[in-house]
C-alpha cells in the first residue's frame, strides 16, 4: 500500500484493511501467548463483562512503547508503514487493549441500563473512542484524544463472530459537528467542553446517511480506523464459530500529539 490510492480511500472512507503480512504474523506468534495470559490473569478478571461474552481487556497486553511483546521485534508491517507515511510518525505505544468476544455476545454489561443494552444490540454500541460519558446525566467530553485506531487480530473466527463494524465516511460528519462545538469552547480546557448534544445529533445523521460496513479480519491482517470514525461491535450470530480463544483483537490507540485541538483539526 505505497501508492496514493490507499491514502485517498482512507481519507474518504475512514478505514483501511491490510492484507496478510508476514511481519504481523510473526508479531502475533509472540503476542497471542501474552494475550492468553492476560485473559486468564485473576488480576484482570474485572474486564470479563457482558455476562462472560466480552473480555474488554484495556491495557492488558504486555508490550513496550515500540510494540515488542516478549521476544518479538517492534511492531512492523504495511499498516505501520502506512501510518508513518500518511498520518504521522509512529507515537509511543501504550499497552494494547486485548478485546475478546465469545459466542452469545452481547449480553448486558454490569450496570448497563436497558436503553444502553438495546443500543448495544441494535446499533452495535457505535461510538467514538475517547469521547467519554460521565456523571449522572452521562454528559460527553473528549477526554482521551487518540491519533488513530489500529486493530490486529490474534485469532481467527468466522466473519459473523462479532466483527468490528464501521459507518463509512462518518468521520467527516463527526468532525464537522464536534468541531463547531469545540472551537466555540476552546478558550477553556477543550477536555471540559460538553459535546453531548452535537455528538448525539451527528451520530443520528451518520445512521441515516452512512453505510454500515462489517470488517472481519484474520490473523496476519490489520485494520486501521480514522480516529473520528463511528464504529462498534456487531452481535455474534448463532452459527458463527471460533477457536477456544474466541474472537481476539489487539487494539492500539496512541495519544494524539497536540491533544484535542489536533484531534479535531488535523486530517
UniProtKB/TrEMBL annotation:
<dbReference type="GO" id="GO:0051213">
    <property type="term" value="F:dioxygenase activity"/>
</dbReference>
<dbReference type="InterPro" id="IPR008775">
    <property type="entry name" value="Phytyl_CoA_dOase-like"/>
</dbReference>
<protein>
    <submittedName>
        <fullName>Phytanoyl-CoA dioxygenase family protein</fullName>
    </submittedName>
</protein>
<keyword id="KW-0223">Dioxygenase</keyword>
<dbReference type="Pfam" id="PF05721">
    <property type="entry name" value="PhyH"/>
</dbReference>
<keyword id="KW-0560">Oxidoreductase</keyword>
